[in-house]
Amino acid sequence: MVAGEPDVQPKLEHKGYNRGLILGLTMAESMLLLVFCLLLVAAALISAERNRRYEVERKLEKAQEQVALLEKKQSEQTALIVQLQSKIVSGDLSVAEKAVVEKQWRELVLAKETLDRLAANDIAQADLQSLSKVATMLKEHGIALDTAADQVNKLLAGNGSGTGMHDWPPIINLDDAKKNYFQSGSAELTGTFAQLLDTTITDEIASNLNLYGANIVEVIGHTDEQPVARGKSNLDDTIINAIDGKLPVSALLPADNAGLGLARAIAVANVLKANPKLKGATILPMSAAQLILPGDTITSGQRGAVESRRRIEIRVRGRTAPVAVINAGATATTTSTQ
C-alpha cells in the first residue's frame, strides 16, 4: 500500500433482517399466526359438534321417556289382559263382566264380518259417508231406513205427474222452538243458523231441486202474534237494496209482523243465493206474517210470544211460465198503459 493514499477497501453491508419476510412478518411469526387461525377453526368445529351432540342427547332422552311411557302402558294393558284371561279361564267373572265380554266379542265379530262384506263388494269409505248423509236426511223427515226404498218406488211410480200424494216436494220447516234462529223482533241471523243454512239446509234444498226437477225456492217467513214495537217501517225504501245485497239485513226496520216475516225471509234467501250449489235456482222471499199456524191452518187469535210459530218454511217448485213469457207480458202491459 502506498503511503498517503486513501483506504478504498469496500465495506460489506449486512441486511439479514429482511430475509424470509411474509407481509412484514418473519417466517416464525407467520407460522405462529397460521397455527392460531387453525386453532380458531378447530375450536369452532368442536363447538358445533358439541351442540349437535347435546341436541341428539336431548332427543334421545325424550325418546327414551316416550318409550318408557309406552312400555308402562303396555305393561298395564298386558296385566289387564292376563287378569281378564285368568278370570275367563277360572270362571271368576261376574254376571255383568261376562255380559260385557260377550257383547264386545259379538260386536268385534260383527264388525269384522261387515268389513269383509264391504271389501267383497268394493265399497269405499266415501260411499259409507254418503250413505250416512242419506240416512241422516231420511231420519230428519221421519222416514225409516228400512222403508225408504218402498217410498222411493212409490214416488217413481207416480212418474212425476203430481197426482199422487207423495209427488209433492217436502217442506223444510225451521222453527225457533228448536234453536234460537232469530233475535226477538230482529231479522238478523245467528251464526249457528247461518252455518246450518249454508251446509245441511242447502244440501237438502239442492237434493229436492234435483229430485223433483224444480228451479224455484220459496222462503216463507212466519211470525207469532206479538206486536212489533216500532212506529214506522222503512221497508219501502230499503227492501230492494237488501235483496240485492247492497244493504245489510240489519238496515231493514219493519213496523209489523208482515214486514218482520219478509225481512227474515230475505235474510235466509240472501244466504241461499250466495251458495254455488243453488246457482241455477231462483230464490223468492215471502211473508205469511202471523196468519198461518204450524200445520197449515189459519189462526183464530193467539197473543204472546210463541216460539213454534216463529219459523221459516222452504219449499221448491217448478216455474209456472217461462221467464221470457213473463217479461213479454209485463212489457206489453207497460206499453199499453203509457
Helix content: 40-55%
Query: Could you name the ranges where pLDDT drops below 50 across 5 or more consecutive residues?
Result: 160-166, 332-338
Q: What kind of sheet is the major sheet?
A: 4 strands, mixed
The CATH topology of the domain at 170-329 is what?
Answer: 60s Ribosomal Protein L30, Chain: A
Radius of gyration: 43 Å
CATH superfamily of the domain at 170-329: OmpA-like domain
Quick check: average pLDDT? 77
By CATH reckoning, the class of the domain at 170-329 would read Alpha Beta
Shape: extended
Order of helices and strands: HHHHEHEHHEEEEH
Summing up helix and strand content along with how strands pair, one would put the structural category as alpha+beta
Strand content: 5-15%
Amino-to-carboxy terminus distance: 150 Å
Q: How many DSSP H or I helices? A: 8
Number of strands: 6
Annotated CATH architecture of the domain at 170-329? 2-Layer Sandwich
Strands ordered across the widest β-sheet: 1-6-2-3
Question: Describe it for me?
Answer:
The structure is a single chain. The protein is α+β, with helices and mostly antiparallel strands. It has a domain at 170-329: 60s Ribosomal Protein L30, Chain: A (2-Layer Sandwich), CATH 3.30.1330. The protein is 53% helix and 9% strand. The protein has eight helices and six strands; from the N terminus they run ααααβαβααββββα. It has helices spanning 27-90, 95-120, 125-140, 148-157, 191-212, 235-243, 257-273, 323-337; strands at residues 172-175, 216-222, 282-289, 292-293, 297-298, 311-317. The strands form two sheets. The chain has a four-stranded mixed sheet with strand order 1-6-2-3. Helix 6 packs parallel to helix 7. It is extended and about 110 Å long.
